[in-house]
Specification:
120 residues; single chain; alpha+beta; globular
Length: 120
């Protein structure tokens, strides 16, 4: 079992998302991998589609995936809670991480279609 890096839900497998961490860019110039559950991946991809990349974010903050302090966009997540069931929570993601989420989303959906049709 592994945990989603955004909501903390424990699931058997996570969907890998490549993230460029500013503090680790010299050690890992191609980025590091973060794991997201399908629910968080869908929410972040939905936010990516809504964001107009020509408009800068009006909000400054720290990205929840890469830790960069830059313009961020709120992503609404459904975080599991033992006492309340599911709690809606906003986390901040930068545009670069949202773009990485979009790439992972496309790759994941492509793999699902291939598995349905029996291609390996």
């Amino acid at each position: 079992m592994t945990d989603c890096d955004l909501c903390g839900k424990a699931i058997p497998t996570v969907i890998p998302v490549r993230v460029i961490r500013p503090l680790l860019k010299f050690a890992y110039p191609n980025g590091v991998w973060k794991g997201l559950c399908e629910t968080c991946l869908d929410s972040a991809q939905k936010t990516y589609l809504e964001v107009n990349k020509n408009q800068p974010s009006c909000r400054k903050g720290k990205c929840a995936l890469c830790g960069d302090k830059t313009g961020v966009f709120p992503v609404e997540l459904q975080v599991p809670d033992f006492s309340k069931g599911i709690v809606k929570k906003d986390v901040d993601l930068c545009y670069r991480c949202l773009k990485g989420v979009d790439e992972a989303y496309i790759r994941h959906k492509k793999e699902q279609i291939e598995m349905e049709h029996g291609y390996h």
